[in-house]
Amino acid sequence: MKCLICGMEISLKSINVNKSAFLKSNSDSIIYYCPFCGAINEYIVDGDKMDLLSNNKLNDVELKIIEHAMKLEIFNGDFYKQASELASSKEIKDMFSALSRIEYTHARIHQKLCEYGELPLLNKIDYKRYQNDEELLQQAKLREIHAIHYYNKYEGNIENPNVKVILKELKRVEEEHISLIEK
Ligand SMILES: [Zn+2]
C-alpha cells in the first residue's frame, strides 16, 4: 500500500507506528489513516499509482506559501518533541511523540513540494516554562489552531490541483489533532 499524500509505502508492520496520534486504530482488516502523515484511507492505494507530491511545478506564490508551511510544521514538530519529554503522563508523552513524528512528515511533504534541499533547523525554543500537562495540552491546541488558520488563509492562493488536495488533507489532519488533544 502507498499513501498518495506523503508518498510513503505502508506495510502491515507499520500500520500502528503512530497510533497514539489517532482517534481510531488501524488494524489488519481496516486501515483508517496513513500512519505517517495521518491522511484518511481514500488516499491509500494498492499498486504503483503516482503520489500527489511528485512532479509538481509550483509558481513563486505557491513556493513561498509552501516554504512557510514547511517551517510551521517543523516548529510544531519541535514543540511536540520537547513536550513529549516534559509531559508527566505516559499517555500524553506517547501522544506528543507520535504527533511530533506526524508534523515532521508534513514538513517533509512541503520540503518535497518546494524542492528544498533538506529540512531547515529552526532556532531552538525552550518550552520548560510550561509547568504541567494541562499547559502543554493548551499550547498544543494553540499550535494546531495556528496551523489550521494558516492553511485556511492561503488555500485560495494555490492553483496547482495536487497541492490543493494535499493542503486540504493536511488541514483535516490538524483539525483531528484538536479533537485528540481535547479528549
Ligand atoms: Zn501519508
TrEMBL record:
Record Pfam families: Ferritin_2
Q: What InterPro entries does this protein's entry cite?
A: Ferritin-like (IPR012347), Ferritin-like_SF (IPR009078)
Q: Which SUPFAM superfamilies match?
A: Ferritin-like (SSF47240)
Specify the protein name.
Metal-iron-binding protein
Name the source organism: Clostridium omnivorum
* Lineage, uppermost ranks: Bacteria, Bacillati, Bacillota, Clostridia, Eubacteriales
